Amino acid sequence: MERLTLDSETWLLVLTGAGVSAESGVATFRGMGGLWEDHPVEDVASPQGFLKDPLLVWRFYSERRAGAASVAPNPGHDALVAWERHLGDRFLLATQNVDGLHGRAGSQRVVEMHGNLFKSRCTSCDRAPFSDTTVYARGTLPLCGQCGEMLRPHIVWFGEYLDPADLERIEDFVQAAVAKRGKLVFLAAGTSGAVYPAAGLVDRVARAGGETWLVNLDPSENTHRFQHFVQGKSGERLPALADLR
Length: 245
Ligand code: BV8
Ligand code: ZN
Prior knowledge:
The chain is an alpha/beta fold. The protein has 2 domains: 4-26 and 72-114 and 162-244, Rossmann fold (3-Layer(aba) Sandwich); 35-70 and 119-155, SIR2/SIRT2 'Small Domain'. It contains 9 helices and 13 strands. It has helices spanning 18-22, 41-44, 47-52, 54-69, 75-87, 101-105, 164-179, 201-207, 234-241, and strands spanning 4-6, 10-16, 35-36, 39-40, 91-95, 110-112, 115-122, 130-131, 151-155, 183-189, 211-216, 228-231, 242-244. Strands 6-5-2-10-11-12 form a 6-stranded parallel sheet, sandwiched between helices. A 3-stranded antiparallel sheet has the order 8-7-9. The chain has a two-stranded parallel ribbon with strand order 1-13. Strand 10, helix 8 (201-207) and strand 11 (211-216) form a beta-alpha-beta unit. Helix 5 packs parallel to helix 9 (234-241). The chain is globular. The structure holds ligand BV8 and zinc ion. Zinc ion (ZN) is lined by residues 122, 124-125, 127, 144, 146-147, 149.
């Protein structure tokens, strides 16, 4: 298997998807066949879906909260922690995963592009998003303690905008690597490359002259956009891939 050298010149931007958490036993989106309890995920993970049936959406997220809380990080997560410790501020991890496993593994330089399962926010007042690990029982509609309106998961749903601050942090990293004449590398792991804007990061780095890697169980929708493709399980490939210098 080809090796990825991480040395004092390297600036590494990593993007992870559901395949990295799959190694911990968390179902991927494709694993759910895009369907959950015969509801297309896009319908359940959307503002329209929430307005139509908030109880169904809270059941979807409560079940995923319980699932994520019951699993542990895997060697793929651990490898990313080791790379961050080696590269310091020349490392940034952008994740599409909302299960919080990167944080539990010890990753610190993380951008949770699509939010976090263990945070909720009010649909109405200006209360800031807050930590919420409650697995709400079926039929429970959580209400805001401040204004009494419905709470919602602090998740970016399909059709919703990502936090501009998150996108800026990723863009600033790419620009810093170029400005400092570093060796910019982008590595995507466990993602089908179906969802934007995350799936567009490979093109952004390629335009900046960076090197692009994909570590994935099977060819993804945008495999052809990567210079290097390492096929296999992220929990096996990531720990063996990097040559730390
Ligand atoms: C946006 C939170 C601007 C939810 C998620 C029409 C109308 C509205 C929007 C759009 C539209 N057409 C296009 C769009 C844009 C849309 C989009 O890209 N849609 C896709 C479906 C075409 N994007 C958005 O809506 C984004 N916002 O664009 O705002 C806007 C606003 C209004 C109108 C237009 C534009 C918001 C996107 C964020 C959505 N929220 N998550 C939740 O998690 O509950 S996305 C959700 O799905 C996940 O977070 C994840 O990002 C994504 C699934 O992707 P993956 O992580 O890649 O997972 P997947 O299962 O697909 O693939 C797993 C891969 O791993 C596979 O390739 C498999 O081979 C591999 N694998 C499996 N096991 C392993 C493995 N690899 C290694 N090892 C293993 N063991
Ligand atoms: Zn409120």
